[in-house]
Amino acid sequence: MRIIDTHCHLNFKVFRDTYRETIERALAKDMGLIIIGAAKDTSERAVMIAHEYTNDPVYVAVGQHPSHVGDEPFDGDWLTSLAQDNKVVGIGETGIDLYRPEEIASHELQKEFLTGHVHVARALDKPLIIHSRGTAETLPTAIEDVLGVLRGGMAVRAVFHCFTGTAKQAQQILSTGCMISFTGVITFAKELEATVKAVSLDRLMVETDSPYLAPARYRGKQNEPLYVEEVALKVAEIHGKEYDEVLEQTTQNAIEFFGL
Ligand SMILES: [Zn+2]
User: Fold this and answer.
1) Residue 186 CA, ligand 1 centroid: distance in Å
2) How many structural domains does the chain have?
3) Mean pLDDT over residues 31-52, rounded?
4) Whole-prediction pTM value?
5) Distances (CA, A) of 167 to 150, 158, 173, 190, 196
6) At 248, which CATH number?
7) CB 3.0-4.6 Å disulfide test: which of 32, 99, 138, 197 passes with 57?
8) Which of 147, 134, 142, 205 is nearest to 175 (CA)?
């Protein structure tokens, strides 16, 4: 694998008719993919899709996203059993989202879900994919809460995905042993330059979070795993490194982190 999109949602409805061609385009470029579940149905669908590619680097994470905590109860038995599938390399996405008022209202419930995911991850020895989002006012709480739950569950093998916090918050996360991954947001949000710079290459991974967050060059188009190259290019630019070095290091990081 030359590059890995460590977080994409080819299991979501918008890819229903196109996920196969999208995966094949990525595989043709020697890419690896990790498809992320956000609820029971999309997690199961991710596993189903990955099994169409038995011998290819198409992997899955399964979990119940914090924005869905009001839709279905946390189901530890379901999660434990699905997570034992051989294509499942991570637990999530899970975490704390305090961006919208209704998400703030479900704060306690989100913590319960997160705690449940941490227990399953620890029991199965799989890494966690953390979604941690908030406004400038609420993001510090979201991060603190996640780190608190991770500490409580004695789990530090986690990645903060689509990270958009400050350099200081990045350092706080890195000091606990977690990894950080960036999306195409870094290609258009100038204020994230200092944050990207604060994450050394050996702790950094790249992702698209497609179909969302198309990088600057493809703004307005539907995002897809191929465009993860734009994220790696921006990381290379900000770190003043060769593109190939960024590819090699971030791919190695993902292989080790997810045990691919
Ligand atoms: Zn996501």
Assistant:
1) 16
2) 1
3) 98
4) 0.96
5) 21, 18, 10, 13, 7
6) 3.20.20.140
7) 32
8) 147
Does 93 sit behind a cis peptide bond, omega within 30 degrees of 0 on the bond before it?
Answer: yes
Contact by Cβ (8 Å): 214, 229 = no
Helix, strand or coil, per DSSP, at residue 62: strand
Ligand 1 centroid to residue 55 C-alpha, Å = 24
Domain that holds residue 147: 3-258
CA of 209 to the centre of ligand 1 (A): 5
Give the Å distance between the CA of 223 and the centre of ligand 1: 12
Residue 15 CA, ligand 1 centroid: distance in Å: 14
| Alpha helix positions (H), the chain | 19-28, 40-50, 76-82, 101-105, 107-124, 139-152, 167-174, 193-198, 228-239, 243-258
The pLDDT > 70 percentage for the chain reads 100
Cα of 162 to ligand 1 centre, how many Å? Answer: 8
Count Cα atoms within 13 angstroms, Cβ side, for 184: 25
Question: According to the model, what pLDDT value does residue 151 have?
Answer: 87
The pLDDT of residue 155 is above 90? no
CA of 222 to the centre of ligand 1 (A): 14
